[in-house]
Amino acid sequence: MLKKELRVILISLLVSLLITGAKFAAYLMTHSVAILSDALESIINVVAGGFASYSIYLASQPKDENHPYGHGKVEFFSIGFEGAMIFIAGILILVKAIQYFIFPKELQKMESGLWVLGVTTLANLLLGLYLVRSGKKLSSLTITGNGQHIMTDVYSSLGLIIALTVIHFTGWNWLDPTVSLLMAGLILTNGYQLMRRSISGLMDETDMKTVDKVIEILSANRRENWIDIHNMRIQQYGNNYHIDCHITMPYYLELNDAHDEMKRVEELVNNGFKNSEVEFFIHMDPCIPSCCHYCLKSACPVRSHPFTGEITWARDNVLPNRKHG
After folding, report:
1. Spelled out in words, what is the top-level CATH class assigned to the domain 208-318?
2. N or C: which end of the chain has fewer CB within 10 A?
3. DSSP H/E element including 42
4. More confident call, 304 vs 177
5. Phi, psi at residue 34, to the nearest 5°?
6. Which pLDDT does position 263 carry in this prediction?
7. 65: exposed, middle or buried (C-beta count within 10 Å: 0-12, 13-18, 19+)?
8. Distance CA 56, CA 2 (A)
9. What is the value of pTM for the model shown?
């Protein structure tokens, strides 16, 4: 897994280096601040690719005494670093665009610059699609985040090509810094979103999509001894997960039987999370008489109240620290 992730990110790094060089060449030919903006953003791809290589290596290291949950959290730091670099690039582009409004420059060799930009945009599109697909396949936050950033670069480059084509045929040079301002806004937004995702991961903010996926897996394979599941908490470490939860079971179960039920929960969820490892800490609660009305155990020898209906598992009863009903 590590070799595959490193190979993907190294390909990204090499291609980004070539694209960045080509974009700066286009800027030197045309003196377009909008192309300079695009080139500055590409520098971030190179820096982020280098940092991502190290973060992927570190995230793959095994658990130790100082890091009992592993080193996967570094991936959140990686996308936060990338987001901060993108945000800084957005500010630099904003400043440069304002300077060009005050001190405009004559654009040159626009046709050659457009050809270079078109080729680099196509290369970026292929790279972005490759990274997003690889990131999902390998369950890598770093690779997926890198791919999403490059796809944003593609969209801004397409807009830039359209704007420069209009400038080339109309001579409206004022569009150049105007487009650069729009690109700065897009880049600043993208940087903020990556930093926001990084902070939420480092602060263990609940990912409701992951919660819903776990609930869906357990609901589809519900066993009659699983009377309810509550107080669920999910933490993500790179592409691995740690889940705490309470499961209410019949109080008279033998310890071995209860252990088998908990192992079944672990196996089901791990099978549902491909390319990820899910570690469970399960606290078993004994059932009480108030559980009887929704308990699915048909041959319960100690039922004190009649069954009235199954309670569907959802966020509102799985996340709180209380038995259902």
Report:
1. alpha beta
2. N
3. helix 33-59
4. 304
5. -65, -40
6. 94
7. exposed
8. 7
9. 0.63
